[in-house]
Amino acid sequence: MSNEAATAQAAEAAPAPEPLPHGLGASLPAADTRAKTEGTFPYAADLWAEGLLWAAVLRSPHPHARIVSIDTSHAREMPGVRAVVTHEDVPGSPLHGRGKADRPFFASEVVRHHGEPIAAVAADHPDTARMAAAAVIVEYEVLDPVTDPEQAFEAEPLHPDGNLIRHIPLRHGDPEAAGEIVVEGLYRIGRQDPAPIGAEAGLAVPRPDGGVELYLASTDPHADRDTAAAAFGLEPERVKVVVTGVPGATADREDQGFQLPLGLLALRTGCPVKLAATREESFLGHAHRHPTLLRYRHHADGEGRLVKVEAQILLDAGAYADTSADALAAAVAFACGPYVVPNAFIEGWAVRTNNPPSGHVRGEGAMQVCAAYEAQMDKIAKKLGIDPAEVRLRNAMATGDVLPTGQTVTCPAPVAELLQAVRDFPLPPLPKDTPEEEWLLPGGPEGAGEPGAVRRGVGYGVGMVHMLGAEGADEVSTATVKVHDGVATVLCAAVETGQGFTTLARQIVQETLGIDEVHVAPVDTDQPPAGAGCRGRHTWVSGGAVERAAKMVRTQLLQPLAHKFGMSTELLQITDGKITSYDGVLSTTVTEALDGKELWATAQCRPHPTEPLNEAGQGDAFVGMAFCAIRAVVDVDIELGSVRVVELAVAQDVGRILNPTQLAARIEAGVTQGLGIALTENLRTPRGLIRHPDLTGYALPTALDAPDIRIVRLVEERDVVAPFGAKAVSAVPVVTSPAAIASAVRAATGRPVNRLPIRPQAAVVTERS
């Protein structure tokens, strides 16, 4: 037999290759996986341009000070320095801000937080730029910082707009209602840093028309463009933001105060300017999770059913407003959790201090109150001698129930089903069931503790978040789908931040048009806006826009065939790249139907409108909600106070699973981020100064810290108002897991555990405690 014949025979005998994942519901791999693993993915820190200059920013060493003078002469005279800019060099609007424009690009008269930008330098070498920035002489009159948010109410105004950013008094039901039992608690949540994988970096390139192009890892390029244009005194059309590879984002990825000096220096010098922040600068510049003080009083009847919830919630916004008003709305609205509460009276405040600015971080507002209301549910269970899971089940919210804001929950709300799933999941084996040498003690494999001091605890957390913007935010996204030569291209300004939008867009087009090869174009501001990449927006709004555009192209594709055979396009279907009619008369491939034609369509998606909360905290403020239940199992060394999370069992309301592998990864990542909030992550700021602004002093959980994460139930009950019926999945496990871990530590130690992260002394059991 010849070699050719043998090869042909072997090919005939070989099994057919497995088909590649295709369409919605398949675990389609991300298109950029290979580039990221090979190190060829285009991050901003890797960009280069001919004639490149380097930038550095001078930041305030004080949290609160009056600026007496700024002398830039020494910096300007240094060899290699091309430009030095301060507040006097900002040609346009001097203020910026995500939610409210109240933050100066460069401090001019007063410094309001540690690390506030004072000046920026462009030079021909990064070391020269940093030395020149250090050579700018600033004379300060140091002022006493206001770092306690409770003192902000009585302190002198720290800002022209005052210290109070927002106050929400929520009133729902009968203020005289009372229960048979009452439990109270005071809770504190620390400051979490989003700690992006890569620190901020960017490149600004001046344009021949006097404008500038900014190459950034932006999560909201059109908002960043408009802010930059206002600062530079330019029309928005003369500023272009090109989104580079985003190295992960669990918050507003880019600090606008970082971007704007970059563009200003490029315009001033006429040269490309690059800025790559150090990790310390990243900690100083971007927004953090709001530290929160919470006071709660729960009333319940003799069976543990809630009668009334009273709460006071105080968010520390730091020096500027940012998105604190939005975070407060979420905190107040979800202050009672996913439970039926007939009477609720909540007071919420967000105030300015001289602490580092707070802003959008995944699950903002909802995470802080979840830790508090779940601690209250544990107290009710303990006081009545009821199982903690049972007391939660007796109060579980369901579809049709009413939030304390007066809004009816119209989306699927399978809270009881989720809680039952994690409660009934088998517990992990106890250490005594394995050889002692295999024990993994709290504190790690070489932990100093003794097995006899270890106590196991089981606790529960049930959380909820809202999706999309709230209180009247106009959520809209635009997408274009083009088909040419059998290849589809999606143009949408939705930024891929790790949430999987580009993969989802490919799946939508594959499902709708039957085309395997789908590309998602890079994002820039020449495309129509798609909005910020947070709260599941791009799954819902941008995914909905892609679906509508793809369906319009589908109609263009099928219309000639339907007309030829005398039927409507609804009687044709596309499956696995083939077009068939309901009666089997028509059967052809998508490639044959295209016949070299170029088809395209543009569409928008805009969810139903919401409304602001009124003066009593009432209103239909949210488009949709998502829910999660987690059971935590922990081992605690009650002598050392060290905690090891053994297992986290997760049940989540996901609407519809669009990509199983991607969804599981997002849930596991969210749970692990919550683990950091619960045990290790606390950006300490004594007297307003960030202590240890690095990843040595700020302890992120690693793969070695992550427990076994068991996804025991995913409830697929589609939300009829959402495209594909899917819900956001990343934020709600972040919200829920810290509360579950704290609940488990309470069960193990009997201690109240009223502060996150949990400090070792809070888990130590003494005779008196």
TrEMBL record:
InterPro entries to which the protein is assigned, alphabetical: Ald_Oxase/Xan_DH_a/b, Ald_Oxase/Xan_DH_a/b_sf, Ald_Oxase/xanthine_DH-like, AldOxase/xan_DH_MoCoBD1, AldOxase/xan_DH_MoCoBD2, AldOxase/xan_DH_Mopterin-bd_sf
Coiled coil spans: none
Region Disordered, residue ranges: 1-28
Highest taxon, organism lineage: Bacteria
GO molecular function, one term: iron ion binding
Biased composition (Low complexity): 1-15
UniProt xrefs under Pfam families: Ald_Xan_dh_C (PF01315), MoCoBD_1 (PF02738), MoCoBD_2 (PF20256)
Residue stretches making up the Aldehyde oxidase/xanthine dehydrogenase a/b hammerhead domain: 38-144
Record protein name field: Xanthine dehydrogenase D subunit
Organism, scientific name: Streptomyces azureus
